[in-house]
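Write out this protein's structure.
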Amino acid sequence: MTRKILIRGGYLIPTAERDTDIPEADILIEDDTITDVGESIDADVDHIVDATGRVVIPGLIDVHRPLWETLLGNLIPDSTWPEYQSRRHTLWQVFTPDDVYAGTLLGAASAIHSGVTTIVDFDDLASTPAHIDAASSALRRAQVRAVHAVVGPAASDGHRAGTAAAPRPLPAAAVVWTGPDPVHVDRIRSAREQNLPIYVDVGSCPAAVEQLAAQIALGTDMIYLNAGDVTVRSLALIAESGGTVSWSPALNAVTGQAPTAWTRFAAAGLTLAVAAGGALVTNLDPFDQLRSAYQHARLAAHQANHRGTGDAVPTARTVLGWATTAPARALRLGHLIGSLEPGKQADLVVLDLDALTAGPVSCPVTAVVLGASAAHVTDVFVAGRGLKRDRVLMDIDSESVGDAAHEAHVRIRLAAGRRPAAH
């Protein structure tokens, strides 16, 4: 039988791309799909979620979040980019498959709790098939919409690279290109045959995009990592081909990577998707990531305009699009997620922006970007399934997940030669 849910009376931001907000909207969900959006929907339903006085947004999408790092959040504060890269590579060596499971499940639970409904688990730890299986198992357990992008040492044998997890198989995966290697080019061709998005890590070579373009056509199916320091020509090639840049401004700022990235991205007219990038030095709350993007982008735009460049200054609505519509398209899932419209999957988030912590709401879009946090997320739906209801995770025991993560955290820090802090 069809299961029907009505989200009633919330301030609806159906998409960040257009100013089409509905102050008091109802959303009718039938099984996994939104079937109607509007005012005062009259329908016999199985359950009603009262969103009166609250804000409803599309589920947030993170296109680059190594979930294993969640186990060691803020472990190496004050690190430079080289120090961050070196330390995380050292930590890989002491992670067992059980540790990977604990970290991935904790990361997925944290993401759901904070309103992230789609994650690309950038599994660059993937040391062995057992490690990969552990991460995949944790993603299935969490029931979040996820893509397990296997890009670590074990990815070279093709062991389930890019498999998708719950709530249903998705036409999405990831291939990583890091240099002029024919093997990587062959993987890109294979991914294209399957209509899959392609990750291109260009951080190790400023001219990497130019080198890649000489071997294979660039396209809208490509998501570029660590692109802040590539050549002007490389950025132009990305823009001309319709590619998307995954931008982690908080991580970049803390570690000192690509300090002028936004100015260069804006000058090239690039499409951006905001991503956390990692937990070892930054806060994974997606709203913190949005605020960081908003502040860095606007500051850079204002500075450029003081020099007479005439750059467009991003708005809060623009930035919200970097976590919804833009990444949905980049993952080739724009027909399913990224906005709240009839016919799309019911991935949505309900926010209670109470006056004490977020202030009286004058502009809901701006309030989401500047005032919201994970603590304001009351309900999270993925494919019509309530994974968080009335501020409580439904399918995950937060206490047991936290306890398992703490035990793994202690073991890893001792194995890595660092005494853990008190629990």
